[in-house]
Amino acid sequence: MKIIRSKLVISLLVATAAIVSIQCTASDQADGEFTAGPNAKRYDIKGVVESVNREEKTAMIAHEEIPGFMEPMTMKFRFKDEWVWDALKEGSQVTAVMVVDNEKGKYWLENPSIVDAPKTAGPEPPKEEVAVEGKKVIDFALTDQDGKTLTPKDFAGKAWAVTFIYTACPLPEYCILMSRNFSDLANEIAEDPELADKVRLLSISFDPAKDTPEKLRSYGLGYLGKDSKAKDFAIWKLAVGEDERIRKIADFFGLRYEVDEKNKTHFNHSLRTVAIGPDGTVRKVFSGGDWKKQELLKELKASLK
Questions:
Q1: Distance (Å, rounded) from C-alpha 149 to C-alpha 56?
Q2: What is the distance between the alpha carbons of residues 289 and 76, in angstroms, rounded to a whole number?
Q3: Where are the domains of the chain?
Q4: Do residues 217 and 145 touch, judged by C-beta distance below 8 A?
Q5: 3-class SS of residue 5
Q6: Please, are residues 159 and 275 in contact by the beta-carbon 8 Å criterion?
Q7: What would the CATH number be for the domain defined by 41-115?
Q8: CA dist 295 → 193, 292, 299 (Å)
Q9: In angstroms, rounded to a whole number, what is the distance separating the alpha carbons of residues 192 and 109?
Q10: Of 109, 199, 218, 279, which is most buried, counting CB atoms within 10 Å of its CB?
Q11: Please, what CATH class does the domain formed by 142-303 belong to?
């Protein structure tokens, strides 16, 4: 009798352990993406939602300064808490905890509080000095990857797009994504003789201390590939200039960037990509990195008609 009872107890314990193991495994798989390492940092964050992508489960949030860590800027965030996607909307005010796990190269928000946007009489009129649709692009002079002077006049009569990067950026959803998009587009455009003559792309570095013309050329070739028809940089140009000049251009296009005080080799920055028509006026402003390559190309083609 004791043997039977002991076997019953053991069987129950094994079954219980199996259930617990299954539950833990399922939980780990669900939360694995948002499991912080032992050296992860946490910061209180407050901001306003600019856009929501429920398919990708990301939101662009313009956040306030995070004391001792980051200047105010607009960034793309993921949330650990699934319920937010039923509540989050453009204009929502968000407070949350930002988890930064540098060892995994990830960051996300958790424990959020969401408040709907207050009703207003209407949208705030755009500032005169910032790029909006129909506004003429400001004049500027930069140095391209070949050491030549580059100005908006070089794009006269062509549809062109501008974005901002720095070559040491480690984030796959920021500069790396922008450069992949632009290099892919350059390679695609190079295969079309008509477009190759009418469309241009420009990536501007905001790290003049490190991103020399030679560095930009090497960086661009790395993205284009050795067999690229666009490796002469006739279509995709990369440029840099004095910090004061870059800041003026960035301010016009609505880009925000600051040196990371925790790691001065990196920048905290937003994303901004702008489509410009052959007449030098802004056609469309893409905030963040959610835009698709074909969206931008479609806008550039439309400006040529």
A1: 40
A2: 8
A3: 41-115, 142-303
A4: yes
A5: helix
A6: yes
A7: 2.40.50.320
A8: 20, 5, 6
A9: 43
A10: 199
A11: alpha beta
DSSP-derived 3-state class of residue 117:
coil
> By three-state DSSP, how is residue 140 classified?
coil
- 267 contact partners, CB below 8 Å, separation of at least 6: 166, 169, 206, 207, 257, 258, 259, 260
Q: 101 near 121, Cβ under 8 Å? A: no
DSSP, res 155: G
Q: What is the pTM of this model?
A: 0.64
